[in-house]
Amino acid sequence: KVALTFDDGPIPDATPAVLQALASQQARATFFLLVDRAEAHPQLTRQIAAQHEVGLHGLEHTPWLTLRSPEAGARELRDARARLEAIIERPVTLYRPPFGAVSPRLYESVRRAGLQLVWCSVRTRDGGRVSPAAVRDRCRRAGPGDIVLLHEQPSQSILPAVLDDLAARGLRSVTVGSLCTSV
Question: Three-state SS for 3?
Answer without folding.
Answer: strand
